[in-house]
Automatic annotation (TrEMBL):
PANTHER family named among the record's database cross-references: HTH-TYPE TRANSCRIPTIONAL REGULATOR RUTR, TETR-FAMILY TRANSCRIPTIONAL REGULATOR
Keyword check for Transcription: yes
Keyword list, A-Z: DNA-binding, Transcription, Transcription regulation
Chain ranges of the HTH tetR-type domain: 8-68
Protein name, entry field: TetR/AcrR family transcriptional regulator
DNA-binding region residue numbers: 31-50
Superkingdom: Bacteria
Gene3D superfamilies attached to this UniProt entry: Homeodomain-like (1.10.10.60), Tetracycline Repressor, domain 2 (1.10.357.10)
């Protein structure tokens, strides 16, 4: 039996409900029953469409990404970074950070969730970032042999983890912009 397609609107509605529940109860307490109740759908429909809770969560997070980083090309690395930051707002960043905190423990205890997030969210983001950095290398803004190139994702994750711990402040666009200018770009020699 072929699986029926949801309308894009219904799919967006389901994904929004999943993310809302994740923020409210965390991954471990999120159940397909709760998603079904919140979205007025059946558990059977959810399993038919997504197969598993990890798949549904990873797809909901992927759907929530407003732009494909690889498509951003302003002609300069700093411009590309500013364009990336312009595609989100502080409220969304705070929500994303809350989701990541909620999933941090779950990925260590659930290999299926870890795999789904890597395939659907982390790898596409890393590929997009690699493309943006690769263009900067081709334009001559960054030396291809710079060891910091491989560490940019680590720097970014560090910023998201460190600011709330050190300053008890959320990560926002102003902070990320100054972080890129003070830490990331200088380490790349850009």
């Amino acid at each position: 039996m072929a699986r029926s397609r949801l309308t894009p609107e219904r799919e967006s509605e389901l994904y929004a409900a999943v993310l809302e529940l994740l923020r409210e109860v965390g991954y471990d307490a999120l159940t397909m029953d709760a998603v079904a109740a919140r979205t007025h759908s059946s558990k059977a429909t959810l399993y038919r469409q997504w197969g598993s809770k990890p798949e549904l969560v990873a797809r909901a997070m992927r759907h929530n990404k407003p732009v494909d980083i690889a498509e951003i090309d302003t002609g300069s690395l700093r411009g590309d970074i500013q364009a990336m930051l312009a595609h989100t707002d502080d409220c969304q960043m705070d929500k994303d950070a809350a989701l990541m905190r909620g999933l941090a423990h779950a990925v260590h205890t659930n290999p299926e969730l870890h795999r789904a997030l890597r395939e659907l969210l982390i790898e596409p983001e890393m590929n997009g970032l690699d493309e943006v950095l690769g263009r900067a290398v081709r334009r001559g803004e960054i030396d291809a042999g710079n060891p910091a190139l491989k560490l940019v994702p680590h720097m970014l994750i560090g910023a998201f983890i460190a600011r709330p711990l050190i300053e008890d402040q959320p990560v926002d666009r102003a902070f990320l912009s100054s972080y890129f200018d003070a830490v990331v770009l200088p380490s790349l020699g850009a």
